[in-house]
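Chain X:
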Amino acid sequence: MSKSVISSDKAPAAIGTYSQAIKAGNTVYLSGQIPLDPKTMELVQGFEEQTVQVFENLKAVIEAAGGSFQDVVKLNIFLTDLSHFAKVNEVMGRYFQQPYPARAAIGVAALPRGALVEMDGILVID
C-alpha cells in the first residue's frame, strides 16, 4: 500500500511531530486542526469564529488531498465546553450536505494553545 504526506500552505503548518494528513491507498487521515489562522499562526477569537476557522483549515487539507467535505466518512469534534454543541451543528451545516459523515463530539478539559474546538477526520477518495 502506498502512503503519502498531504499538506497545504492554506492550513496551519504542523506545530509538532505530525503531518497535516496522510493518504494510505484511497483513505486520507486528517490530523487535528485547531483554529489557527494559517497566515499568522495565531488563534482566532470567539467560538463561532474558531469553529469556522477549523472547518476552513480542514477544507484546505482535504482539497490538497484531492477531496471535498462530501468525501469525509468520519469526523471527530473535541470541545472544551459541550454547551457549544448546537453552534457546532449550525456551522457544520454550512460545510456538509447529506449524507453526513459519522461523527463523535467529545468534551475535553483543554486543547492546544487554549483553543475551544479541534477536529480531525477520515475521508475516502474514489
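Chain Y:
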Amino acid sequence: MSKYIPFILFTVFTNAAAQVMLKYGMMQLGSLSFVGVNPVFKLLSIVFSPFVFLGLCTFVISMASHLYVLSKVELSYAYPFLSLAYVAVAVFAYFVFHEDLNAYRVGGIALICVGTYFIAQGGSAVSEEAERAVEISQNAAHEVSK
C-alpha cells in the first residue's frame, strides 16, 4: 500500500501547484471585466496567459496521476489525500501571497492532517487484492514457462 503514497502525494502537490499558478496568473491579469469585450476572446486571453495556462497544464498532469492512483487503490482511500492540497496551498499562500493564516485555519489544517493520517492507517483493500492477483498471475506464468 505504501508504495502508492508517492504517487498520491505527487497528485496532491501538483494539484496545489496548479492552484498557486492559477492564483498568480489571475493576479497578473488584474480585476476581470467582460464589459465591452467579446467574452470568448476574453476567456481565451485568460486561458492562454502564461501562468493560468501553466496552472491548467499542471492540473492535467495532476489528474493523470490521480487516474493512475485510482487504478491501484480504493477511491475512499485516495481521494481524502487530496485534502492535503488545502494544507499546501494555505501554507504557500501565507508565505508568498501574505494571506491570513489565523487560528481557525490552523485548526482546520490540523484536523485535515489528522484525518488524512487516520485514513492512511486504514489501507486499501483494492491495492492488496490487486497485488495478490499480480503475484498469482506471475507465479502461474512462471510455472507455465518451465
